[in-house]
Design brief:
heterodimer; A: alpha/beta; 7-stranded mixed β-sheet; 3-stranded antiparallel β-sheet; 8 helices; B: 263 residues; alpha/beta; 6-stranded mixed β-sheet; 4-stranded antiparallel β-sheet; globular
């Protein structure tokens, strides 16, 4: 923790802007899944790089917070590193890569493998907040469809998937029904992560900077992934465990290893992978007893997410 | 069900385009009753207010004056102008259909035929893929579209097939009242004949009430029980179809009937 950058307000945005965004956030929390318009500001990065998430984070961050930023699950990619150092500079907050230690997690395209806990807030960067957009291009019409809860159109998309591919082929940004009322785009997280949103103890906030929309899922809210009775929602599955840490039941990225077609599948969540790999190598590094705090976190992962040792 | 009451009661209906200072009446002073199972044709030349009337009846355009009362499936009679937007949408989903002149207006051109026919079902809460698909296949068969085209998008269909698909999409939820705006006029003559034959069969079989707008008197004669002739936004003559066409009273209707080119 250090003093915030001289000449900047804490969190970069001015206080009036933060108040405006907090009002939008309060409204969003009060109506789970409803897209609240807000006056999106310029932040020192291009639209499409997570400006919505950055504005939400800037509005809720305090100097006692501990921030973690992930991009596709990884803490060490350009986007994650630059947003993390941005907030370290302008808000003077402590940053971490450990999911369990963070109070605010800003994310692009993933939910961490370590289950989120009560008191944590996860901020999603959202490129397209409107789940019906590619089916209905008119904003006036999609708003009307939300107002009347007229969601037959979304099922047309799922129908088309099944008719064409034999199964629902949507694997990311898989539409969800929040609290039995609003259809919501969960941002482009893999459908693998969808079940983690359901009745999560953490507060989930969504910011779309370019599209100027904020929405939220309060803790312990029902988030149901759409499906048909005879073709229910099924999250993605992976056949093999992570090639580095051996975790099964986690989301994997394919990493190209050479130019002869070789590749390996490794955890997309780098924090989880590091800790699982350390546990695999023997817990001596962190070891105070058999199950240290962080390792227990890892092991109580998703239901099948055990570390194979 | 009380069939002693009309399905649609139209009294002094009119719609004006433009704001109050410079408004222009699209149609005015229209009165008629539509009974369950009855087909009424609205004929007249281009610009006579036929489509405006259809829009005003179906709540796509607001009524500037007069009233349209509709008897719901449960028997209660409602004034359409007083219904909420949600209630009107519910009517569209469950009790009404609208067949456009251009099928591209009534279909999702890049969604498969099965998806197009299945959408109204999914909108009213069908959540079983197999059943949606079976219903869609059944309706494709009824409108004489080969069932193996179920996964093809309407952009790959001919004009006649598109129009038949639009009809299937409208009839799949078993509506009670269907509005049709020149359903055959974009098609060539032989396709028109087949489509009319199909429509006549379906209307009789399902007991639909239909308001059909057409400039083609042959379509009116083939499909409708009663006819309304419109000119300059007003209904100038109304009566049984055969009566109006065989023995027109108004000079304009006489002109209209005599303008048909003999084949």
């Amino acid at each position: 923790m250090s003093a915030p950058l001289d000449g900047y307000n804490i969190g970069y945005l001015d206080e009036q802007t933060k108040r405006m965004i907090r009002r939008a956030l309060l409204k969003a929390v009060a109506i789970p899944g409803f897209q609240v318009p807000f006056a999106s500001r310029e932040v020192p990065m291009p639209r499409g790089w997570g400006t919505g998430g950055v504005q939400v984070t800037a509005s809720i961050i305090g100097q006692d917070d501990v921030l973690k930023v992930i991009d596709q699950g990884a803490d060490d990619t350009t986007n994650a590193v630059s947003i993390r150092s941005f907030f370290a500079a302008v808000a003077g907050v402590r940053t971490t890569t450990r999911t369990g230690e963070a109070t605010i997690i800003q994310t692009r395209h993933r939910i961490p493998e370590t289950p989120l806990a009560a008191g944590q807030t996860i901020v999603y960067q959202v490129p397209g907040p409107e789940p019906l957009r590619f089916l209905e291009p008119r904003e006036t019409e999609t708003r009307r469809l939300h107002a009347l809860a007229d969601y037959g159109l979304m099922y047309v998309k799922l129908y088309e998937d099944i008719a064409r591919y034999g199964h629902i082929a949507t694997t990311y940004d898989y539409p969800v029904m929040v609290n039995g009322r609003y259809l919501m785009a969960p941002s482009p997280i893999p459908s693998f992560d969808n079940p983690k949103m359901h009745r999560s103890p953490a507060l989930q906030l969504f910011g779309a900077g370019r599209e100027k929309r904020i929405y939220a899922v309060p803790p312990y809210t029902d988030v149901e992934s759409l499906g048909f009775e005879d073709h229910p929602f099924e999250p993605q599955r992976f056949d093999q465990p992570c090639a580095i840490c051996g975790s099964a039941g986690v989301y994997l990225d394919e990493v190209i290893t050479d130019d002869k077609g070789g590749s390996m599948f490794v955890c997309s969540d780098t924090d989880h992978c590091e800790r699982a790999a350390a546990a695999l190598a023997g817990t001596s590094a962190t070891g105070t007893g058999t199950g240290t705090g962080t390792d227990t976190d890892t092991d109580t992962d998703t239901d099948t997410g055990e570390v194979t040792a | 069900m009380n069939d002693a009451q009309p399905l649609l009661e139209v009294r002094g209906a009119g719609h004006a385009y433009g704001d109050h200072s410079a408004s222009r009446w699209g149609c005015r002073d229209v009165d008629f009753d539509l009974w369950p199972g009855e087909v009424i044709a609205v004929v007249g030349e281009s610009g006579s207010g036929k489509t405006t009337l259809l829009g005003a009846l179906s709540q796509r355009l607001s009524l500037t004056e007069g009233s349209v009362r509709y008897r719901l499936a449960d028997g209660t009679v409602v004034d359409l102008a007083e219904l909420s937007e949600a209630a009107v949408r519910r009517l569209w989903r469950t009790e009404w259909g609208f067949v456009h002149q251009d099928p591209a207006d009534g279909l999702r051109m890049h969604v498969s035929a099965g998806g197009n026919v299945g959408e109204p079902l999914m909108a009213i809460g069908w959540r079983h893929y197999g059943r949606v698909r079976a219903a869609a296949a059944e309706w494709l068969e009824r409108v004489e579209i080969p069932v193996d085209r179920i996964d093809d998008a309407p952009v790959t269909f001919s004009g006649g097939m598109r129009q038949r698909l639009q009809i299937a999409r409208n009839l799949v939820v078993s509506p009670r009242l269907v509005f049709m705006d020149e359903p055959t006029s974009g098609l060539d003559v032989s396709v028109q004949a087949r489509l009319l034959d199909l429509l006549r069969g379906l209307v009789a079989e399902l007991g639909l009430a239909v308001v059909i707008v057409t400039h083609d008197l042959a379509v009116a004669r083939l499909l409708s029980h009663r006819i309304m002739v419109m000119k300059e936004g007003r209904v100038i003559e109304t009566g049984l179809t055969d009566q109006v066409l065989d023995d027109p009273r108004e000079p304009y209707t006489q002109l209209l009937v005599s303008s048909i080119l003999p084949a």
